[in-house]
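Repro:
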Amino acid sequence: MDTAKLGLLTTLLLGLFIIIGALIAFLIKKKERVVDFSLGLAFSVMVMLILTHMLPETIELLGLKHIYLFILFTIIGYMILKLLDNFIPDHDDDGKGMDKHELRENLIHIGVITSVALVLHNIIEGMAVYSTVLSDASLGLAVTIGIGFHNIPLGMVIAGTFYQSNENISKTILSILLVSLSTFAGGLIMFFLGLTEISPIISGILLAVTLGMLIFIAFTELLPRIKNTKNKKVTTVGIIVGIIIQLIALFI
């Protein structure tokens, strides 16, 4: 198999990790606990992702002389989701005192916001993994496994929030497939444009935008909600498991 096809295969594999996470969420019968666990999991995974991966990599790509680009595009990423926030069904940020209908609206909101950020993040990730495989196949496969570990809990979050909000298995599966295939889309962009690498400045700018989005989700959407979950112990376990998964992924 030539490296271009291998690169596409690895980006497709990344999406499969998201589907694995979704399947885990579906197999657990107590869906309400799945949501509480997934929210805690998502929060710790995103915070760890920001601190151990996104932040250092973005600064490294842009360099200190372009620190203004890092600040500017991180703010832009944050504001994109802040503006999108106004076009998604009304919700109560902290989830406190909500009835069943309001709870569903809140979960739809979190699911959509998270999916938008993840699609952009996954496209960039797919492009980066594809170019890594082309330069060093063994390194590319190792990176794929490491990234795949943090995609599993994100798949659980998407499945848990969407299914709990609409109780429609077909809509939930469609949402999961769209997010999971976004990494493959990143590989396809590189393949059809005949690119072997991305400019560090462009990569840094795109990662800064994604970083701003993840900061918005973690601290504006997830943190207020997990403070008021009914199953505090389940949410805490989710946070701990998320940290462990990210540490394993980092080690790999």
